[in-house]
Design brief:
Blueprint (H helix, E strand, L loop, with lengths): L2 E5 L4 E5 L4 H13 E10 L3 H12 L3 E5 L7 E8 L8 E3 L4 H12 L4 E5 L10 H10 L2 E5 L2 E7 L6 E4 L5 H10 L7 E5 L6 H13 L4 E3 L6 E4 L5 E2 L2 E3 L4 H13 L2 E5 L12 H7 L3 E4 L3 E5 L7 E3 L7 H9 L4 E5 L11 H11 L3 E5 L2 E5 L5 E3 L2 E3 L4 H10 L3 E3 L1 E4 L11 H7 L3 E5 L1
Parallel strand pairs: 2-16, 3-14, 3-15, 6-7, 10-11, 19-20, 23-25, 24-26
Antiparallel strand pairs: 1-26, 1-27, 3-5, 4-5, 7-9, 8-9, 11-13, 12-13, 16-18, 17-18, 20-22, 21-22
Helix pairs in contact: 1-2, 1-6, 2-3, 3-5, 5-6, 7-9, 7-11, 9-10, 9-11
Length: 433
């Protein structure tokens, strides 16, 4: 699906939230690095998850899809030897930034030439923090003028790794996956306050589940002690629900009649769980059960939203802010510019096409809400970004006219059945030729 017509409709119903893509990546990688067979269940398949599976297979891991205990979900039987080796000499990371940054240190630890390729915006997404490490350790690598494909040839060595805290937390996680497999002990030192620390917490929790011990020396996430020579242990388990996807449906509920997001875990370490607290501050009618978030339609108002630890929910919340009373400020959001697209520019551009009043700042947005709704009409674009497409879909409920969305198929990156779920709760979408 490339182009679709979306008509205004107030959504009402229940959605079983997809499993967490972030935790899915981590579970699958840890299982692949273990000696023996693991079962990872409750996986919502997507292009990004498939990219991670391809990379593991290229490193000698066997992966088989088996019957899931959860309707509509996938279980993976993952068998590894406890050691990685280049079964193939390259891996296609698709458009998945997580996959690329998680696997680069593993590829660099092979002691053989290995190439990472990708597509779309991923080709140009920054990897400088890794290039600096390669240069410091004398590892040979080549790029296409700093972009993919990346070929690395050498053997990553145990030691002290220093990273600035304002780079993606994916660099930290990537090192934490690989360093326990090296012969010696290592330190990962974060030289400035770490952004998106919750994602590193998720990595540490998954590593611990698979038997890897890493000491987080202080509560500020500034130093990690990693013993070498550790062995991942095979496990059986389920992937938790995805709080970044909950954001779209909670916004849909606030702008519609009533939407229940089920299959969530309130003990989750996902930073995107902040969507509940943020929307409460915006006056949304939110209630919860042990495994669900219920949001009923009610006018919302402005607040200040700090994106530091929850960048992925900012597009959905920007859509909500566009039709909330008052002026909302999105702050500390510069990293949204290096996602699948420049999400600050995208949300500013496309919401304004619908009649919103959004001003773009270097590290955020200022959104003057229009609680009476947006004009709608015309054509907007998803910028080949799944989160932009879904955010525009849910704000349609507060548009006076329908609109055409190009790039609607981009949801396949993280949520292939989004449009099916959208229609199941009353969303009005017509695929155009």
């Amino acid at each position: 699906m490339e182009k679709a017509r979306i008509s205004p409709a107030k959504l009402n119903g229940e959605i079983l939230i997809p499993s967490s893509k972030s935790m899915g990546h981590r579970e699958i990688i840890c299982a692949g690095l273990a000696a023996g067979t693991s079962i990872v269940d409750n996986i919502s398949m997507s292009k990004d998850i498939e990219a991670t599976m391809r990379c593991l297979k290229a490193l000698g891991v066997e992966i088989e899809k088996v019957t899931s205990k959860f309707p509509g979900r996938t279980a993976l039987k993952i068998t590894g030897s406890g050691k990685i080796f280049p079964k193939e000499n390259s891996a296609d990371c698709g458009e998945s930034g997580s996959t690329l940054r998680f696997f680069v240190p593993l590829g660099a630890s092979l002691g053989a030439s290995f190439t990472f390729t990708g597509h779309g915006k991923l080709v140009s997404r920054p990897l400088k923090a890794y290039y600096d490490i390669f240069t410091e350790q004398g590892l040979a690598y080549t790029t296409n003028n700093g972009e993919l494909p990346l070929t690395v040839n050498g053997k990553l060595q145990a030691g002290i790794y220093k990273l600035p805290g304002d780079v993606s937390s994916q660099y930290v996680s990537g090192l934490l996956f690989a360093l326990p497999l090296l012969d010696g002990d290592s330190l990962v030192e974060i030289t400035s306050p770490l952004e998106s620390a919750s994602y590193v917490d998720m990595t540490l929790a998954c590593l611990a589940k698979y038997g890897i011990v890493i000491e987080n020396v202080n509560s500020e996430h500034r130093l990690y002690k990693v013993k070498g020579g550790q062995k991942y242990q095979a496990q059986v388990g389920n992937v938790e629900g995805d709080w970044s996807q909950v954001a779209f449906w909670t916004v849909a509920g606030a702008l519609g009649e009533k939407v229940i997001s089920s299959g969530v875990d309130f003990t989750s370490l996902q930073g995107d769980k902040a969507v509940v607290e943020i929307m409460q501050r915006m006056g949304a009618d939110i209630s919860t059960t042990d495994t669900a978030v219920i949001v009923q339609g009610k006018e919302t108002h402005a607040t200040t939203i700090d994106a530091t630890n929850c960048p992925d929910i900012i597009p959905a919340l920007s859509a909500l802010a566009a039709v909330s009373a008052g002026t909302t400020k999105i702050i500390n959001a510069a990293r949204l510019r290096i996602k699948e697209c420049d999400r600050l520019a995208a949300m500013c551009s496309e919401l304004n096409k619908l009649g919103a009043k959004v001003t773009e700042l270097p590290d955020g947005l200022v959104i003057e809400g229009k609680p009476d709704g947006l004009a709608g009409g015309g054509q907007v674009d998803a910028w080949n970004d799944h989160r932009i497409a879904m955010s525009l879909a849910v704000v349609a409920a507060k548009c006076h006219e329908g609109f055409t969305l190009t790039g609607a198929g981009s949801v396949a990156k993280s949520y292939p059945i989004f449009w099916e779920d959208y229609k199941s709760v009353g969303g009005q979408i017509e695929v155009l030729k």
